[in-house]
């Protein structure tokens, strides 16, 4: 079994809408082309950054279809199939398997606070529905559910479980999951603000919601870590954090701001779906400054 295809920088794929707010195949293709050109390892499709929570089942199936159409065989494809019910999650999982995705992933059940036994059963039912490998998604700050190392260990007895995408904030969680899983498991860093720290504490790779706004910087940060160049890795992380704080400090939601950054970088993928808020007039000025900071950082670290 080789897990190399999961190692590297894996941007969380954004929802690409037309001017009326419907899923757009041509704009999805534009984002695929842009990420392919940047040289990322893969994409994580239909997760938080994909606004999955605001999309119908058919829309989510369309997104999985379009991304596979333009990227299958060109990079690693991970389908996020978490949905409110096990039934819908399985529909998405089977669809992704038919499309030839490399792996599935899912958040735990949301809304009701369910016991470990129900969460375990939810993930296990999805895993059993297809032959694909599976990546647990731990993101307590949005789901209210915290994966424990003990439950992770139990899930790993199923050989299809190959890792965890850990978006909790303590890097110690990454260290604990790596200790449980060892070398045959892939731990993905979730919080982009501590990508370098996460890698040093045991993450083999990263899946992130801000990567696509500045893939060059994350690819370089990963290279610095791989080469043991921790001084420069820390410096680039600090610059990345200035940018992320900027992305999160506007009237519009972070994803609306990122989409406008991408628009300025030549990729128009529309705006966000309500209740996420779009950018305001005032934001456009601040976005000019962010784009300039990204360009300067690329010039400083990547040329
Ligand atoms: C809580 C949250 O949304 N976390 C993001 C981060 O990438 C986050 O956007 C970033 O660290 C900025 O805060 C990712 O872990 C989510 C993600 O990759 C996804 O599923 O789209």
Could you please describe the fold and organization of this structure?
It comes from Paenibacillus shirakamiensis. Pfam families: DHDPS (PF00701). Its EC number is 4.1.3.3. It contains twelve helices and eight strands. The protein is α/β, with parallel strands linked by helices and 303 residues long. The longest helix is centred in the last third of the chain and has 22 residues. Helix 6 packs parallel to helix 7, helix 10 packs antiparallel against helix 12 and helix 11 crosses helix 12. Helix 2 links the parallel strand 2 and strand 3. It has a single domain, classed as Aldolase class I (TIM Barrel), CATH 3.20.20. The site of ligand SI3 has 18 residues, from helix 5 and strand 8.
Identify the overall geometry. globular
Uncertain segments are none
Please tell me the overall pLDDT: 97
Helicity, in percent? 40-55%
CATH topology: TIM Barrel
- What count of domains describes the coordinates? 1
Alpha carbon gap, first and last residue = 36 Å
Helix count from the secondary structure assignment: 12
Keywords: Lyase
EC number: 4.1.3.3
Pfam families: DHDPS (PF00701)
Protein name: N-acetylneuraminate lyase
